[in-house]
Amino acid sequence: MANIKSAQKRIRVTAKRQKRNTHVKSLTKTAIKKVVAAAGKGADAQALLVQAVAAIDKAASKGVYHKNTAARKKSRLTKMVNKM
After folding, report:
1. Per-residue model confidence as pLDDT tens digits over 21-65
2. What is the C-alpha separation between 59 and 26, in angstroms, rounded?
3. Nearest Cα to 51, choosing from 22, 72, 81, 21?
4. What pLDDT was estimated at residue 2?
5. Alpha helical stretches, state H, 42-84
6. Which of 16, 22, 62, 74 lies in the 20 to 30 Å Cα band around 31?
7. Do 45 and 39 contact (CB within 8 A), yes or no?
8. What's 66's DSSP letter?
9. Cα distances (Å, whole numbers) of residue 68 to 20, 47, 65, 71, 72
């Protein structure tokens, strides 16, 4: 355990951010998986794509994903849905 006050705070802040980032990433990954599954079955993938893009944008705005990573994920999902 850290003895310095600032190091103790860094540990607390890091744990809090890690918990938030894990939660946001999990929600985003779930939304992406739903789109992939719907695209494979030919279901209503367009509506799920809108939700997934919103989740990716929210994650990028919170700093969980880099903006280019978010753009790449959105691009690949959109291409996949448009291809079907």
Report:
1. 999 999 999 999 999 999 878 778 889 999 999 999 999 999 999
2. 10
3. 81
4. 84
5. 45-61, 67-83
6. 16
7. yes
8. -
9. 20, 23, 8, 5, 6
- 37 neighbors 44 (Cβ within 8 angstroms): no
What does the alpha-carbon distance between residue 13 and residue 57 come to, in Å, rounded to a whole number? 23
Report the alpha-carbon distance of residue 26 to residue 41 in Å, rounded.
23
Three-state DSSP class for residue 76: helix
Torsion of CA 34, 37, 39, 41, to 10 degrees: -140
Domains of the chain: 12-83 (1.20.58.110)
Closest CA to 62 of 37, 25, 34, 30: 25
Residues 6+ apart with CB under 8 A from 39: 45, 80, 81, 84
Residue identified by tokens 């994903």 is: 65
The Cα–Cα gap between 53 and 57 comes to 6
Tell me the two tokens of residue 69.
């990573």
